[in-house]
Design goal:
Number of domains: 2
CATH class of the largest domain: Alpha Beta
Number of strands: 10
Shape: globular
CATH topology of the largest domain: TIM Barrel
Structural class: alpha/beta
Helix content: 25-40%
Distance between the termini: 43 Å
Number of helices: 9
Order of helices and strands: HHHEEHEHHEHEHEEEEHE
Strand content: 5-15%
Radius of gyration: 21 Å
Length: 282
């Protein structure tokens, strides 16, 4: 049996037993929406768009064997953090009281088509920090993720430890990737993440010279089944930026990137959080 169908069946059965679901409805097809009602029959009843979208979102999560994440709140009219200032800001979180976190995926070595399918169906936003030496075997893979509305950002040309490089070498790594990503994906990145989270003041100066608006670090990092936390309470906090990677089974001890991402989404939902789009806040 298909893994996602089995997951959906188990999730649906559990909800029926708990009494949380009293029935289900079928989303009308696009063709049915366009068809004109016959003259002898009343027009079909149309479901409320918001309600239909919520039901479709919930069904998509159940199909992947996951509890659904709540819809994120509308982003603020004015972004809490913006461009400007003498120095490029270095951030690990976004100031907010909302129970939201922001997902980021680094590097680009793994190019799992199932991950594209998963994120297309779940519509969970995330930001990509890409290294050219990791993505250059298949640039189009990341185009498919960008087309879902996910941001493409800078993670250097070759993934060096920038603290070991001088100012000009850092500038080549950052500006060179700005140019490549801009040419490949149509938009010059606004955000930059230094490999390993290692940076110094030369990094900030180089980032600013290359047109970067913010250096983005993280508060939590996803491993295979669990997150690593920087804070002693080992909990998510509103506005935290979460790090994950485009990793394959060799690095995930036989697990897939899709399985790792499913575990990540479960951890977020278990703590009562949902996922918002980083670019809407920064």
């Amino acid at each position: 049996m298909d893994r996602r169908i089995a997951g959906a069946a188990l999730a649906g059965a559990a909800l029926l037993v708990s009494g949380l679901i009293s029935g289900c409805t079928t989303e009308p097809s696009a063709a049915a929406d366009r068809a004109a009602p016959s003259a002898s029959a009343p027009a079909p009843e149309r479901r409320d768009d918001a309600g239909g979208a919520a039901a479709a979102r919930e069904a998509a999560f159940h199909a992947w064997g996951l509890p659904p994440l709540a819809e994120p709140p509308a982003p603020p009219a004015k972004k809490p953090l913006g461009a400007g200032g003498a120095q490029v800001p270095v951030i690990s979180e976004i100031p907010t009281k909302e129970k939201i976190v922001f997902l980021t995926f680094d590097d680009g070595a793994e190019k799992d088509p199932e991950f594209v399918k998963m994120m297309r169906e779940l519509k969970v936003p995330f930001s990509m920090f890409l290294t050219d030496s990791a993505i250059n075997t298949d640039y189009d893979y990341f185009t498919s993720l960008q087309q879902l509305g996910n941001g493409v950002h800078n993670h250097t040309l070759t993934h060096p430890n920038l603290r070991t490089l001088g100012p000009e070498a850092q500038k080549r790594e950052i500006c060179g990737q700005q140019d490549k990503l801009g040419q490949r994906y149509g938009t010059t990145p606004r955000l930059f993440r230094p490999p390993y989270g290692n940076w110094n003041e030369d990094t900030r100066a180089a980032a600013k010279a290359c047109g970067v608006e913010a250096i983005v670090l993280w508060r939590e990092s996803m491993q295979i089944e669990n997150m690593q936390y920087q804070r002693a309470d080992k909990k998510l906090h509103p506005g935290d930026i979460v790090l994950a990677h485009f990793r394959g089974q060799d690095e995930l001890k036989g697990r897939t990137m899709t399985e790792m991402t499913a575990n990540l989404l479960r951890k977020i939902q278990e703590q009562g959080f949902t996922v918002a789009r980083l670019e809407d806040y920064l």
